[in-house]
Amino acid sequence: MEVKIGIQNVAREIVIDATGSEDQIVAAVEAALGGQALDLRDERGRRVVVPAGALGYVDLGEPSRGRVGFGAS
């Protein structure tokens, strides 16, 4: 699922293709709104951790679908 994270006082947003189900990602975002750090992993195994106090916004895209094409991942 594509997730865009806006950080307070930072011009660029973080965009990742997060792994996990939509419910797991929503639960992580809700936990961050409660004060925990937002902790997500992308499809390549990289980890993104954002302190809850620095979150500006979180935009959840559509769940990932099977990709078609010649691009390497």
Can you tag this structure with a few keywords?
5 strands; 16% helix; globular; 73 residues; three-stranded antiparallel sheet; two-stranded antiparallel sheet; alpha+beta
Structure summary:
This is DUF3107 family protein. With 73 residues, this protein is of the alpha+beta class.
Which helices and strands occur, and which strands form pairs?
Blueprint: E1 2-7, E2 14-17, H1 22-33, E3 38-41, E4 47-50, E5 55-60
Antiparallel strand pairs: 1-2, 1-5, 3-4
Can you put this structure into words, describing what you see?
With 73 residues, the protein is of the alpha+beta class. It has one domain. It is built from 1 helix and 5 strands; from the N terminus they run ββαβββ. Strands 2-1-5 form a 3-stranded antiparallel sheet, with helices on one face. It has a two-stranded antiparallel ribbon with strand order 3-4. The mean pLDDT is 88. This is DUF3107 family protein.
